[in-house]
Amino acid sequence: MKTLKNFEAIFTVAVAIACAASYVSFLQPPAAPAEKTAQSATTMHVVTVTAKRLTPQEKQLSLLEERQAQLNNSTASIL
Prior knowledge:
With 79 residues, the protein is mostly helical.
């Protein structure tokens, strides 16, 4: 029975905190509209990536090298 009373007290406190947080959130001014924040950025930076695609063989070799490097790092950290 004592445990149920403790849970009742915890629930009551949680509800009180939730109500207080809800009340405080209504008192805060609303956030600025997205149009005003977007206008502050005058220029947008553009990045152009030019690179050739890997062939399937090159990609497979790259993945094998990456896995080997990860295995070497994991065994070194264990020691």
